[in-house]
Amino acid sequence: MTAKQKTVIGLVMLVLVFLLGFMPQYLEKRQLQRELAISIEKLKLSELRDLAGLMLLEGLRQNYGVARDYSSQYFDKLREISEQAENSTLKAALQELLSSRDAVTAALSKADPASASQLQAIFAKTQTATKAQP
Q: Which of 50, 51, 108, 115 satisfies CB 3.0 to 4.6 Å to 74 for a cystine?
């Protein structure tokens, strides 16, 4: 075997060893990125449920100003999640919830006690829409 052949074989072996070490880490990284994306989506949906609950709680306590602040946060988060949602069922449910923004904001601005029933409906729909997701 000549020196040139030994060099070529050595380089081929080096590339093979590199690939054998690289591939498992690459595949593990991809799997962890998928798991992270799912966890982030679950966290955002959980935050949405929390905001719906806080909005309802303050509405039932007749703290309409605080409930309005929570509703603003809720609908902003709802819009953000709905724009990023890949699941068509989730996206449709979130868009339906988003359509009630003006009515809820108006009711809370007027300090209307009847807004509690709207908030209860939003809370229930939010729970239903977000609990069934991955």
A: 51
pTM for the predicted model, two decimal places = 0.80
- Contact 126/97 with Cβ under 8 angstroms? yes
Burial of 55 (C-beta count, 10 Å sphere; 0-12/13-18/19+): buried
Instruction: Tell me the CB-side half-sphere exposure of residue 3, using CA atoms within 13 A.
Output: 0
* CATH code for residues 41-131: 1.20.120
SS3 90: helix
Per-domain residue ranges for the chain?
A: 41-131
Six token digits for residue 89: 């069922």
